[in-house]
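Quick note —
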Amino acid sequence: MIVRRLTLALAVLVVAASVAVGDQPGTDPGKTFMWRVERGGTTVYLLGSIHAMKEESYPLPPIIEQAFAESEVVVFEVDSDEMTAAAFQLLLAGTLPGGQTLESLVGPATWAEFSDRMREAGFDPKMCASMKPWMAALTLTAFEMTSAGYLPSAGIDAYFSDRADDAGKERMALETVAFQVGLFADLTAEQSLAFLTYTLVDLETLVPELDRLSAYWRDGDVAPIEKYLLDGFEEFPDLFGKLVTNRNRAWLASIEERLAGDSDAMVVVGAMHMVGEEGLVQLLRKRGHTVEQVTRTLVR
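Predicted structure written out below.
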């Protein structure tokens, strides 16, 4: 059922869900999930990021490391130095107004199922009693990911942010933490409840499906990733516009500014932002840029 993939799509997009290197082979091991755009003598690499990974997922393909080495500037969705503040802001935004409870919003049946899932994960459901549905869904999903070994500290963003610091490279951010928190804080009541509902439905299959996507990411196999991630939003076009399309379009100016400069750059953003007709790759092509998917062959 297409709508059941909403949780998977949201997880890959914004919940630090992970696509780690798996054992299942993809269809084209010669590619990566990275693209190259050139203008004049300037190169911008677009790397589809996985926000959390298993520690054993490294090392990354050497061509990705080479692209990083060649880049003087590394651009992320947000400044990683603000992530501690982001967690606090997210918790505040995800707390219900005084007197309200999650159980009163979702009903006794959904609360009972949520409580069972929390206990299975080893946590007291009462810790989420005052959370909004979307925040409860994020919390439960994060517990599931962590228990499976998927760590934000091992994600692509964190990895290259640390590397950029060590190498003395300039770091830039496309968005503020406040903006990203607002993406959730501004969800409608219907969208918030849907997020929790589908999380409960999909929880048992979430990690296996992410593992299945891992091989496609590793081999740069765009089509199945596009189908998995975008199908989940088919019945939620407004949510897709808010979380994906509008942000992609807003980022174009920054990417083109990088291309107009004289410093090579690597742009590291969520994998979902690369795929589909409204993905960064196609949007840049529509604006006349030549965008090529990077193969694993090293260029010396």
